From TrEMBL:
Similarity remark: Belongs to the GHMP kinase family. IspE subfamily.
HAMAP family linked to this entry: IspE (MF_00061)
Keywords: ATP-binding, Isoprene biosynthesis, Kinase, Nucleotide-binding, Transferase
Name under which the protein is recorded: 4-diphosphocytidyl-2-C-methyl-D-erythritol kinase
The GHMP kinase C-terminal domain, residue ranges: 202-261
Chain's gene name: ispE
PANTHER family in alphabetical order: 4-DIPHOSPHOCYTIDYL-2-C-METHYL-D-ERYTHRITOL KINASE, CHLOROPLASTIC (PTHR43527)
Amino acid sequence: MSRPPLVEVAPAKLNLALHVRGRRADGRHDLETIFAFCTDGDKLTALESDDLSLTITGPFAAMLDDGPGNLVHRAASALAAEARVGKGVALTLEKNLPVASGIGGGSADAGAALRLLTRFWGTDPALAQRLAPELGSDVPACLLSMTARGTGAGDALELVDAGVADTPVLLVNPMLPLSTRDVFAGWDGVDRGPLGDWREGRNDLEAPARRLVPAIGEVLDWFEEQDGVDLARMSGSGATCFALFETEDARDAAAAACPEEWWQMASFVR
Ligand SMILES: C[C@@](CO)(OP(=O)(O)O)[C@H](O)COP(=O)(O)OP(=O)(O)OC[C@H]1O[C@@H](n2ccc(N)nc2=O)[C@H](O)[C@@H]1O
Ligand SMILES: Nc1ncnc2c1ncn2[C@@H]1O[C@H](COP(=O)(O)OP(=O)(O)O)[C@@H](O)[C@H]1O
């Protein structure tokens, strides 16, 4: 008898604050960030099969290649090789998050694939942890999908309580993709100081991202006009911005008023 499908959510990632502290020898940047995760995101399903396959469904499926370069494929192949198990699994990715948008879509999917296949194949969870940083700087945080402080390239993690669990959040993207690499390349090299209280912090990638996609400024200005916004900021390398709301009703009212040409997702912080 075949086994029932296993399902794993790939929660959207937020950088509550992101301080860029310097350039590293490996071409990446030293960061100080607070990662938080939403209750919603992409969805990954595993079904028994003889071979490894990936099918992509959902609103952003057309923007993604389902070939071996997909981070879900890469995570699955890497775990199978590391664990020395057969690669048999039919994966379906429901792609709800816009691609290249600062909320970790690909990294979240890779993290979800590692969690899902650790369960599906019964492999040692330490293997997934070991592979995560090789799949991307954000993948260790997404594997954890819990509020954490990230340092180093964003892959050295310490669990923290940011005090925002269950907060209503609205994510808005002006529907313009941004390359993480290009945004980091536009950072001016000025270290503006360490991250203490994240509420008093900033996103140092906002300025270079806004130079590439000025519509980010329109989204942040629009958030400022909404009632009940506690804090609004850009996430990651953009262009998605998020606002934390005082109440669910205020969040829903803003969602209802959001311009139609922008992508939006109403959720809660996990
Ligand atoms: C900016 C952040 C903040 O959480 O998120 P996103 O905007 O991607 O969501 C991350 O640091 C993105 O992590 P991730 O998307 O995994 O990046 P990677 O695949 O490792 O690297 C892609 C490119 O981003 C740049 N990069 C990434 C991480 C880092 N600490 N310094 C960098 O300079 C490098 O140019 C690198 O070649
Ligand atoms: N499963 C995936 N979902 C999204 N992007 C992916 C995936 N696999 C590979 N990629 C590639 O990773 C790049 C970064 O995408 P993504 O992780 O969504 O960005 P961000 O981290 O800024 O949200 C994209 O340009 C895309 O081509």
